[in-house]
Amino acid sequence: MLKTFSGLQILSRYYLFTEIIVMQSSKVEKYRDALREASPEAVLSYMNDQHPGKLMFSSSMSAEDQVITHMLTGIVKNPAVFTLDTGRLFYETYDLIEKTNTRYGIDIRVMFPDRQAVEQMIKEKGINLFYYSVENRKQCCHVRKIEPLQRAIKGYEVWVTGLRREQSPTRNDLYVADWDENNQVVKVNPLLEWSEDQVWDYIYAHNIPYNPLHDNGYPSLGCKPCTRPVLPGEDIRAGRWWWEQPETKECGLHSKHEKGR
Ligand code: SF4
User: Is 185 helix (H, G, I), strand (E, B) or coil?
Assistant: First the structure.
């Protein structure tokens, strides 16, 4: 039977929803104030103290994410680290997962896409659907990345990412702490203001394991069919979904405005 709501019930739900949004915004404002000049390590430490046991890190095994794994394992005992196996990764990425587990004594949880959803998508649109339209590409990213990530995030309150502002024009309006409406968590970007040089200086200084493809012209790594090496002087994201315009080059994992991804 279809449930109907009275005007009063709808109004009270609206006020409850608004109250939650206001509560979350003021919490995030508090974090931004507290973390204004904080180092990435201080950001991680502070957020872990604010949400003990409720902080998760989703690593794509990128250079930035390897920096965060290094920092996090020095701050949090048994941190919750996840990665997404889309089924289309480079061999070197799998190798790096193992190396990272061994180096830091952790067990990165590998999330897989829903088998039926992948099979259905490929049946309808083909194995390499992503090359034929932005819509197809986003669908593939949704099935192989977003849905598994949403499962991984459930039950956590803080989602740590390795996003940097200078990586893409789509990352201009990020903050060190933000409310992620889609996943209902505080999203934290400790490396937001770091340059690429800072990332690599840190990696070399601490002998952090990284994907060897970075030494072969791949500044940014994702799935194999959607990543190519870049030429000297090209933008660092030029090798990702290179057939698309820069404004569409996000997989949706970090979209602030996209609902129901
Ligand atoms: S990056 Fe390419 S292969 Fe990977 S999930 Fe997105 S569209 Fe699919």
Answer: strand
Instruction: Render pLDDT for 24-74 as a digit per residue (tens, 0 to 9).
Output: 778 899 999 999 889 999 999 999 999 999 999 999 999 999 999 999 999
Q: Is 251 in the pocket of ligand 1 (CB under 6 A)?
A: yes
Element containing residue 80 per DSSP (H, E): strand 80-84
Domain boundaries, the chain: 8-248
Which residues, including other chains, have CB under 8 Å from residue 194's CB and lie 6 or more apart?
40, 64, 164
CATH architecture of the domain 8-248 equals 3-Layer(aba) Sandwich (3.40)
Task: Enter the pTM of the model.
Answer: 0.86
130 Cβ below 6 A of ligand 1: yes
Task: Report the pLDDT averaged over residues 98-119.
Answer: 98
Mutate to test the pocket of ligand 1, among 137, 244, 253 (most ligand atoms within 8 A of CB): 137
Residue whose CA is closest, atom 4 of ligand 1?
223
